[in-house]
Write a structure and sequence with these properties.
Elements: H1 12-16, E1 23-28, E2 31-36, H2 40-59, E3 63-67, E4 71-75, E5 78-80, E6 84-88, E7 99-101, E8 106-110, H3 116-129, E9 134-139, E10 144-148, E11 156-158, E12 161-164, E13 173-176, H4 177-184
Helix pairs in contact: 2-4
Length: 186
């Protein structure tokens, strides 16, 4: 009789003890994910989105924008580092100097060849189950954004314009995706 191979399970606490060796260690429901350092196009997309989000959030005094590497601990066995995250004022009490304890208001992942499966499957499910209000999967190759909310079974796929309206009392942020991806591909 064959015995199933035992797959090690990790906690958020355990991955914090791993070496800082230019790879991203994340744990989702106890499963370890290791991602190599991203490429230039990925970093251009992260920077452009972070600048747009930071300008909007700061101008309206809505909260905080943080870029990776920064840990989001969603459960004892799930700690991830979204490329960009927004913590609105109603979730600010969960933010510490080391990490965010709980769901951000917005998580953004810019996919690359090595992260497509994890970002679209494991992270999406985790973010939906743990109450991340919106999750954007940014695909620079396809020049599109997939927007997910906790109740979605399919993403809203955007190629021209993304409108984010996180607070009813504030104006929406409108992102021209054509212009954004033009900058990313410069």
């Amino acid at each position: 009789m064959l015995m199933p191979a035992l797959v090690p399970r990790y906690t958020a606490e355990e991955i914090r003890a791993f070496p800082d060796d230019r790879v991203r260690y994340e744990v989702i429901r106890g499963e370890l994910f290791v991602t190599p350092a991203p490429g230039l196009r990925h970093q251009h997309a992260v920077l452009e989105l972070a600048l747009l989000l930071k300008d909007y959030v700061d101008r309206l005094d809505l909260g905080t924008v943080v870029v990776a590497p920064f840990e989001v601990e969603l459960t004892e066995d799930s700690a991830v580092q979204p490329d960009v995250l927004v913590i609105l004022a109603d979730r600010a009490s969960r933010l510490t100097p080391q990490r965010l304890m709980g769901a951000p208001s917005l998580a953004v992942e810019v996919i690359s060849y090595t992260s497509k499966r994890t970002d679209r499957l494991q992270k999406r499910r985790l973010y939906q189950e743990e109450g991340v209000a919106e999750y954007w999967i940014v695909d620079p190759e396809e020049r599109r954004v997939e927007r997910w909310t906790p109740a979605d079974e399919q993403p809203e796929v955007l190629t021209q314009r993304l409108v984010w309206h996180p607070v009813a009392a504030a104006p929406a942020l409108e992102i021209d995706l054509v212009a954004l991806f033009k900058k990313v591909w410069r």
